[in-house]
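Format notes (please read before filing issues)

Several people have asked whether sequences and structure tokens are stored in separate files. They are not. Every record keeps both together, in the order shown below: the sequence lines, then the token lines. Line labels are part of the format and must not be stripped during preprocessing.
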Amino acid sequence: MAMKEKLKNILVLFYTFFKIGLFTFGGGYAMVGIIQNNIVEKKKWIKQDEFFEILVIAESTPGPISVNVATYVGYKVAGIVGSIFSTFGLVLPSLLIIYVISLFFDEFLALEIVNKAFKGIKVGVMVLLITTIIKLAKQMKRDAYFYIVMSIALIIMITFSIFIPDFTWISLILIGIGLALGIINTAIANHHQKEKIK
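Then the structure lines:
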């Protein structure tokens, strides 16, 4: 019975992430809102706080953020096999679509309707990204720490965009800043918890 349940979970994981991969354009960040809607709100495989933590880890590790999230969720629900099927389900639509396009690439680009479709997709992706950002921001805890981190991130992003166009060596600095802020936040939270106990 447990084996049958696990097999069912694996198939549901594959189907869920296949749909996400099939109907999402614009890359990993555009998928975040749809992934969150499916795995947190509909399937309830993970909680919202855990989803935020997964996003941070997925962004910090190599590879597309959507693939990293799919791998983690698959592992949590059905172990290693679940992570393989989730990841494969997510990337399979892109592989198939790219393969088909590659067979007729020149003819495909020459079509006027394709150019118009890509312009529409660009607008759709922008809307998807903006709604995802707004939705996630609403669900975050808005305390002093939230506003400090958001302000620092905004200042760093603007500064780097203006003065440092090459980001190849900056990522280590940003990871260090993120770790430092995380350690400080954890220390403050532990201190408050000890105070409450007293």
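For reference, the curators noted about this record: The mean pLDDT is 78. The radius of gyration is 20 Å.
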